[in-house]
Design a protein that fits this description.
Blueprint lengths: L16 E2 L7 H4 L16 H18 L3 H17 L8 H15 L6 E3 L22 E8 L2 E6 L6 H13 L5 E5 L10 H10 L4 E9 H7 L8 E4 L5 E8 L11 E6 L6 H11 L4 E4 L7 E7 L5 E10 L16 E2 L5 H8 L6 H6 L3
Parallel strand pairs: 4-5, 5-9, 9-10, 10-13
Antiparallel strand pairs: 1-11, 2-12, 3-4, 6-8, 6-12, 7-8, 11-12
Helix pairs in contact: 2-3, 3-4, 5-6
């Protein structure tokens, strides 16, 4: 679902939790060229498989959101290791890609991936699935036409710098008659910080938005999600810890009745999907573009031996009213067009007689 970029610094929580994050898997949308590049990843050693596969199998059994599926993943990995399938690869990246493909063949999960160590990281750097030099979280923004505000997200790190930028943007564009939120070129997810800022300005009444179920054993092991503010624990069946993500509207917001349009694509993933899901379920926005990636589980980075990292989903996000989420299915647009036509269609809906290219060139 989301990539909980909470950066929790405790013994079992020294990883980034991705409640909405997605590592965008190259093999899901085309040839995985970068993952096999020897210049990017260290050489593969047979000892890598001998140490990584048992640890990954154990973690999947203990942590994966669906216990039965976690066991299927683990059984497959152990069989493959015993058969010699992971004996030799051109690079550590090729090994990680092969393991990820095998996992996805058992049961598809857009968040589940084994990430190889990278040659371009500083020696001794903590293992992480995050790219070394990611694009800025916020892309283009401003007045795209008179009375129409435009905000492009590339990721959702939920750090203070990014949430402050979102808050300042909404303040500067409080008079907007329409707001266009663009996630067509999102490259990864994050946590709910940016969503909380947006929802606080766009909703007029408090409401529960998304429930998140985590296996109790896993919740105990990671120390739980960071409750407070928009996230709280609620009652749940035995063996499950349930969190509720809610919105508390800002005391005063002129954007509560503003027309909202969100642009989505197959690259919209995790945190971006969380926002799209909430806006669609609440009928607070019109979604334009393509179905989203379908990464609806909560996941985190778990360090593996030899510098590898496993991104393992350990929770499920869903609408508390219907019990349905977007894992595997994605969020469906209200108006389906190609991603590169989504902004043109949005401008038409707002009465702007200008192409997306022309409007972006005049963005203020």
């Amino acid at each position: 679902m989301m990539t909980f970029h909470g950066n929790l610094r405790q013994p079992e929580r020294s990883r980034t939790i991705h409640l909405l994050i997605p590592v965008i898997l190259a093999f899901m949308s085309g040839p995985a060229v970068a993952q096999t590049a020897d210049s990017l990843h260290p050489p593969f050693a047979a000892a890598d498989a001998d140490s990584v596969i048992p640890k990954l199998a154990e973690d999947l059994e203990q942590k994966y959101v669906l216990p039965a599926t976690g066991k299927r993943y683990a059984d497959m990995l152990r069989r493959n290791l015993a058969s010699g399938r992971y004996a030799g690869f051109a690079s550590s990246g090729a090994f990680a890609e092969a393991v990820t493909r095998d996992l996805q063949a058992v049961a598809r999960d857009a968040h589940l991936v084994l990430v190889a160590p990278r040659s371009d990281r500083a020696a001794g750097a903590a293992p992480t699935s995050a790219p070394p030099n990611p694009p800025a979280p916020i892309g283009k923004s401003g007045w795209i036409a008179p009375g129409v505000a435009y905000l492009e997200f590339r990721s959702f790190p939920s750090d203070s710098a990014t949430t402050t930028k979102v808050r300042d943007f909404l303040s500067r564009h409080a008079s907007a008659r329409a707001l266009i939120i663009d996630t067509v070129d999102e490259f990864s997810g994050g946590w709910v910080g940016e969503a909380d800022v947006l929802f606080g300005q766009l909703f007029s009444a408090r409401r529960d938005l998304v429930a998140i179920d985590i296996r109790k054993a896993v919740d105990d092991r990671i120390g739980g999600l960071p409750v407070g503010g928009s996230l709280r624990k609620v009652e749940a069946p035995a063996g499950i810890v349930r969190y509720m993500h809610s919105v508390t509207p800002a005391q005063a917001s002129s954007l509560r009745n503003t027309k909202v349009i969100m642009l989505i694509s197959h690259r919209t993933i995790s945190s971006g999907e969380h926002i799209a899901f909430v806006l669609k379920q609440s009928r607070r926005a019109t979604l334009i573009g393509e179905p989203t990636r379908g990464a609806g589980n909560v996941e985190s980075d778990f360090p593996m031996p030899a510098g590898y990292v496993a991104v393992i989903p350990f929770g499920r996000a869903y609408d508390p009213r219907t019990g349905k989420g977007w894992e595997g299915t994605g969020v469906q647009p209200d108006i389906r067009v190609r991603a590169d036509q989504a902004l043109d269609r949005a401008l038409q809906l707002t009465g702007v007689k200008m192409s997306a290219k022309a409007a972006l060139a005049r963005l203020q």
